[in-house]
Amino acid sequence: MFSPRGPSLRELCVQALSSVERGYDLLAPKFDHTPFRTPRSILDATAGALSELGPFGDGLDVCCGTGAGMLVLRPLCRGGVTGVDFSTGMLAQARSAYPDATWTRADARHLPFAEGFDLAVTFGALGHFLPSERPAVFAGVYRALRPGGLFAFPIGAPPPFMSVSHWAALGFDVTMRVRNAVWRPRFVMYYRTTPLPAVRDDLTAAGFTVTTADLTALGRRRDGSPQCRLVLARKPVKDQRQSM
């Protein structure tokens, strides 16, 4: 599961008993050698789907971590690319890997941008926000995009009820809820709090027009449905909320 260059069990335990920010600061130097980093297959599938909608101007990676999203943004964006994260350690790794990008430390629930980007992406970060916090994240991305801008991110289909993946995710979420009930600071990371219908509703409430694209390169389930979809949330050219 982990390469020899990844964190030890002790290091993972220390991280798990820390806050989200402190945990990722500790994990940052070895993060790219763990299974937590977004797989290249997902990045490539996302880039392929977005290439049909671009090119774009300026790009933003929300909760950028060590900068894996740059592999998507840099080929698609003709302008500058920016990553934002609240972990100083993760940003240090990203800055070292991609010195030509702009890196900003900020909480995704309070993004400090206004109409500066044409494409925003995020990978594997939504589980770090409680459902009640998602509206603030989506509202911040909405503000950060120029009119007509696009917010895109992959979201996996829920695993079948009888699959090992379903019970593993359920067990992890239950363990995290127990941990957060008895230990402070909290470490928010859940796998089952971002179903597509709920995410779509929150994006729509933020003002986006939402569609999805099947990421068929990542495979299909037995019923023929895709294993993963790309959520495409478009900021209208004219903000209907302001015209009412």
UniProtKB/TrEMBL annotation:
Residues 60-149 form the Methyltransferase domain. One of its GO terms (molecular function) is methyltransferase activity. Keywords: Methyltransferase, Transferase. GO terms for biological process: methylation. InterPro entries: Methyltransf_25, SAM-dependent_MTases_sf. PANTHER family: METHYLTRANSFERASE, OS06G0646000 PROTEIN. This is Methyltransferase.
